[in-house]
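#struct-help
A.M.: can someone run this one for me? Single chain, 108 residues.
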Amino acid sequence: MILYHATPLSNLTSIIENGIKPGYEGVVYACERVNDALKFLFIRGYDDVLMVKFKVDKRKVKETFDHSEAFFKCRCWGCTVPVTPDMIVEYKKHDLRPFRQRLYSLNQ
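D.P.: on it. Structure tokens below:
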């Protein structure tokens, strides 16, 4: 199963060296689509975001219900094992500033 985990860009070095350790609820939160994962960092006010694409056995993943599916318009998943560096397929930087500026301009 391919999943996407969004995190502040400042976590890049640690993720390259150590992977991603489960946090809250003992899982690594992730989504099936990039844009869905980005929503969670956008709403928390992050601009410089690292998107981590990783591959995991679907038996090591469970659906999470810590968010409003109606609000975020997506389902979320929790990887129940650490995401080790060898599971990571790709890293990509995303700048959320243009989206934030567009949203603010629509409200002016």
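A.M.: thanks! The mean pLDDT is 91.
D.P.: also worth noting: The two ends are 42 Å apart (CA to CA).
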